[in-house]
Amino acid sequence: MTADLSQIVKAYDVRGVVPDQWDETLAELFGAAFVQVTGADAIVVGHDMRPSSPGLSGAFARGAAARGADVTLIGLCSTDQLYFASGHYDLPGAMFTASHNPAQYNGIKMCRAGAAPIGQDSGLADIRALVETWHGSGAPEPAATRGEITERDTLTGYAEHLRSLVDLTAIRPLKVVVDAGNGMGGHTVPTVFAGLPLTLVPMYFELDGTFPNHEANPLDPANIVDLQQRVRAEGADLGLAFDGDADRCFVVDERGEPVPPSAITALVAARELAKHPGGTIIHNLITSLSVPEVVRENGGNPVRTRVGHSFIKAEMARTGAIFGGEHSAHYYFRDFWNADTGMLAALHVLAALGGQEGTLSALVAEYDRYAASGEINSTVTDQSASTAAVRETFAARDGVTTDEMDGLTVSGDGWWFNLRPSNTEPLLRLNVEAQDEATMAKVRDEVLALVRA
To answer: To the nearest whole percent, how much of the chain has pLDDT over 70?
Structure first.
């Protein structure tokens, strides 16, 4: 096939349609390039439940072994299970998944030893360049000694590590509905939750990369409707929804109402600060103001950063932060090699809820303090011009401040908003937060009128 790698090598990973945009031949070249760029003599490889994942990951392993690296195949796993293997065994790793994308997509998330991320500026551009060279001129020269390919189960070790970080032994019995979306949560949840005082109500645990019930993307409200209804019908204490590769976790309370990821970030931050007094907590600039407030109230040091896991992980490494959270339900832990794991965040929620007698809605109320718009996308012809119009209008007002750490952030008396351009589409993304619903709606509508003029 003729491959256009500019279409499939993204900022943080490889992702595209199989076999139209990439196939096992290319996967084998990616494996060889990964070994050359990381200099690894051993790596670990895992994959999700997509129909194309076993073949692609196997091809990647062959390419890596041909370059002399020993390959440990851990088979079906969640992305954070791959990070566990990379951290626990101190090996570079590759995870075959397209997360919540439709069934015809697949991709590779790669990391260095200790789950350190690989992105455009940290090796991915070099991997792409090698693959392009080899794809045009034939296979790379094999190593003098071919590496061995072996298999290992890491699910039990992953579950034990997570349970060692959060004590759930003394919680009261809880009834929890889990929607795995036919993704990897159906593989990990039964083992992680085994032996805990939980009544588990499983939804869509059958591994099926065609996603027959709904997209495995809980960020879209349409995809948690089934979970919300089931929580109410079961009289459950809470519901959890995982995305396709089960590295993100979304929470709904006993009423079936979504709990904002910012409230989960604040709750987990408070718990981590109880273990590590005075610690640093990373939050991106779209998380609620409640996050830095809670961090300070609990004696911690909040650090604001750009959106995106590469920025979060870099800041965590730089500051020695104990925890980081994003508005998109990615949660990062120092105790998990600074990598993101929705499962560990879920265990914290279960421990907090089960350690007291109240409901989840009552528990998170102290962490959910403001009215938020959620992310609103607008299609625009000129992102810069639309942003400039908004900046001009608001910057002229008394008491208003602006910054451009990531897009345009504007703050006023009791409100703020952020307007960010999409890197891949002609969109502007708006997030607004205010002290009350009326103020939020007023600011939201004014900004949208300017953006969509």
So the answer is: 100
